[in-house]
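Re-run with default settings, no changes from the original entry. Doing this only to confirm the output is reproducible before filing.
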Amino acid sequence: MKITEIKTLVCNARMRNWIFVKVVTDQPGLYGWGEATLEWHTRSVVGAIEDISQLLIGEDPTRIEYLWQMMYRQHFWHGNGIVRGTAISGIDIALWDILGKVHNVPCHKLLGGRVRDYIRLYCHLGGGRMEDFYETKPEDAKRFAELAQQAVEEGFTAFKSMAVPHTMSLEGLQPIRYAEACVQSMREAVGDKIDIMVDCHARPSPRMGMQFARALDPYGLFFFEEPCWPESIDDIALIQRAVKTPIATGERLVSIYAFRELFEKRAASVIQPDITHCGGLTEVKRISAMAEAYRVSIAPHNPQGPISTAASIEFGFSSPSYIICESVHNDVPWRKDVVTEGYSIQKEGMLVYPNKLPGLGVEVNEEEVGKHGFQQEVLQRNFSRDGSVNDW
């Protein structure tokens, strides 16, 4: 058995373009699907996949670890960068899909078998006003409360929001009070039985991240995500030690070596590897083993397309430290049209039950994908009050 072709299909999903990867073999009807979505870098990733694929044509697709090493090491520049890491991830996921089809079992059985009966999903409420928040208005907190109640009505028992606004490297109490008001409003709206997470998107400086973490500590957050840049691992560790709230990070770390430093410095209670960026199922298995050794929980970053979700779920059923999965369900009306999925969801509680189909259990309608071709993503620009560039 040999790989004969690796191709990409780009499907617009408004905020991002999904990049589906199809690895084709010389066996009739045998191919695998992966995903390599990276918003605002679609052209770069498609080009990287084309470059890397030259290493794999003619190779046995079931030698997954061998091929992963080829993709990572055989071009001098190791696959640590986000573009190359995403390209490797998409191909790797497709290879696991092929292996599951070869053995006629779901991927989670290849990864060691099922360790749980179901996986809980959480949704993302989005953010409030990212400008002119300096005068906290009642309607801001009310809007967060309404979104929280809507999530619960849809069946979710957990949700995440971006209640922490953009700030300069140092500011006074106003942004802190804004975040407090929004989180308090959500907590009062849904009570203590619902898990609330707050995502800072790594916008704050370490000092502002510390202040936000301490201010929101009384509200019993399930976790507080990316309180400052992931490059500031020492500062994330300081914040982790300063509060009771579990700190989460890791969506922008793209290799086991980056996670190694995170573990060694005890910087987080929850890691969030993104299976479409960190090296696919092959690398996330290694990251998961390290998390288990340090007794750190896993809640993967997963705002991409449906193949990313399927892969994250297959990984979750085989990983002991896995606690919850991010879910996107209302991004575009054609989400269910372009991909069919093998797993099932219980709406009450938003619980995922195992896929019983071979591989990832997904199939892509290539004709439908063709109806939603590439569109330039809306460029995200954000500036502080004084006009200086701020993180998005």
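Residues 157 and 194 are 5 Å apart (CA to CA). The radius of gyration is 21 Å.
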